[in-house]
Specification:
Layout: E1 2-3, H1 12-18, E2 31-36, E3 42-49, E4 54-58, H2 69-73, E5 80-84, H3 104-117, E6 124-128, H4 131-141, E7 148-152, H5 171-185, H6 197-223, E8 226-227, H7 235-245, E9 257-263, H8 272-295, E10 299-305, H9 311-314, H10 316-346
Parallel strand pairs: 1-8, 4-5, 4-6, 6-7, 7-9, 9-10
Antiparallel strand pairs: 2-3, 3-5
Helix pairs in contact: 3-4, 5-6
């Protein structure tokens, strides 16, 4: 049996089991404060200091803002740098996943609440892994709130829905099922004529082909011996499950974006089957990267060969240089961004 799940959703059984059990390491100078969201959840916010345009760093699933300490600190000489620990982890509040909302848009709203309550003007958001969904949520609904986005191996299904892609296995099915449930809920018999019935049926027909592709892709992988990893039963994993089940469909934006994708190399002494599996996984990652580039016309997509999920560690200098170049170019792109964002927002 093989587990076909890219590190974009992390090695869940490892990172989730550790989440909330190991203390955060204050590896870099910063101050800490707590910001209360509009639904009463206290979030840990790190301030690394610095001056210039603001940068906000978001960690991956199961991580705190400290995950990106080494990278964040490198930009404090030219930017005012912040980090946010999402709800459910670290020193942030941990609402009961059975009652609290851990949807992608709710997590995106948490970031927006911090931006608004701290008076941060038009930041650039940098996110690792699952933080891609928070960035895509903001880009889709409130592009005027940010100047640009940097996806650190974070542009997978939760950040851009591409029907039929198998990375991470099962995520597309969750996203498509949620969209389908929403469309089906709108098909009802009510007293009086439903003037929107034709549009509801049209939208349903648009959702169904993608859902069918996702079912077929997962069925094929399972028949070929793939598995969808199970989470251990623990408080952190229940929160992780709520976040995974809260994924939503996003389809791209016109914001300036820098997106990295890790293309992995086989470990030494890999078996022939392991090499075949990795080649298949990398092909799916490259397909996702191509789709991301097509859906985000102002994106620079960088495919990092020989990288791991923590790309700022495996490819530190290349990631830093690409980010520095992107950030330096942003001021000259602000005018074109404003017009593009307002056009995009008007079509929502």
């Amino acid at each position: 049996m093989r587990t076909l799940v890219v590190s974009a959703l992390l090695a869940l059984s490892c990172s989730i089991a550790q989440a909330g059990t190991s203390p955060a390491v204050d590896a870099t100078p910063h101050t800490r404060q707590f910001v209360t969201t509009n639904d009463g959840v206290r979030l840990e916010v790190l301030d690394y200091g610095g001056s210039g345009s603001p940068l906000i760093f978001l960690g991956g699933l199961g991580e705190t803002a400290h995950e990106l300490d080494p990278l964040a600190a490198r930009f404090a000489d030219q930017h005012h740098v912040y980090g946010i620990t999402r709800r459910g982890y670290g020193a942030s509040d941990k609402p009961d996943p059975a009652t609290a909302d851990y949807s992608a848009d709710r997590l995106g709203d948490d970031v927006l609440n911090v931006i608004d309550k701290l008076g941060i003007e038009k930041p650039i958001i940098v996110g690792h892994s699952l933080a891609g969904e928070e960035m895509s949520s903001i880009a889709t609904r409130y592009p005027q709130k940010v100047v640009g986005l940097i996806y650190l191996d974070a542009g997978y299904a939760y950040a851009l829905y591409v029907p039929g892609n198998i990375i991470p296995l099962g995520s597309n099915l969750i996203i498509a099922a949620k969209s389908l449930r929403g469309k089906l809920a709108g098909i009802r018999i009510e007293p009086g004529e439903d003037p929107d019935a034709a549009n509801k049926l049209k939208e349903l027909r648009l959702v169904l082909p993608g859902f069918s592709k996702d079912i077929a892709a997962v069925q094929k992988e399972l028949a070929d011996g793939a598995t969808i990893p199970a989470l251990p039963d623990s408080p952190p994993s229940r929160i992780a499950a709520a976040i995974i089940n809260g994924q939503q469909a996003y389809f791209g934006s016109r914001l300036p974006i820098l997106a990295f994708y890790a293309i992995k190399s086989p470990p030494a002494k890999s078996s022939p089957q392991e090499i075949v599996d990795l080649q298949k996984e990398n092909a799916a990652i490259l397909a996702q990267a191509d789709a991301f580039a097509a859906a985000n016309p102002n994106a620079r997509v960088v495919r990092l060969n020989g990288a791991v999920h923590a790309i700022w560690i495996s490819n530190s200098q290349e990631v830093f240089q690409e980010m520095a170049t992107f950030l330096n170019e942003l001021p000259s792109r602000n005018k074109s961004y404003v017009s593009a964002a307002s056009v995009h927002q008007g079509t929502e």
